[in-house]
Amino acid sequence: EQLARERLDYQNQIRQAESRIQQLEGQCTGLTEQLQTTQQALQQEQQLRQQAAVENA
């Protein structure tokens, strides 16, 4: 009976860990999207600065 209880505890821990992994994967996806958006904005700003520097030269 104790073995059965330990097995159940173990299965619950596995379920919780899997749930946490899914949560973290979702966060990673969101952060990756934010990073890409930020990189694009930075690239555009760098291009605009270069254009302005050329026009002002």
TrEMBL record:
It comes from the Bacteria. Keywords: Coiled coil. Residues 7-55 form a coiled coil. The keyword Coiled coil applies. This is TnpT protein.
